[in-house]
Amino acid sequence: MNETPPPENPTKSLEELVAEYGDLQLVDAHNHDASRFQYDHERPNWEQNSVDRVVLFGDVSEPSAVQTDNIAWGAYEEYPERIIPFFSGANLLEESGLQTVKDN
Asked: How many structural domains are present in the chain?
């Protein structure tokens, strides 16, 4: 019995995947580029690779997270059609953290 091996599936490049699937909505659901405003430098990459939305994080579990939360919010205000800001600059283990969440 002569069986023909299954055809090989060559690995596609990112460019080929974007060309084939670029019309599907793509969300970067975990992006830490709020730190140092890095998201602004990534925008051309998102355009080129058909990334429609970005959940933008900054620092997490760090005192600096309050600042990067503000950066993520500012990015949302500038690009509301693309940026989903993530809020992480409140310590929910402390009573004051809950008040921070309520206030913001």
From this structure: 1
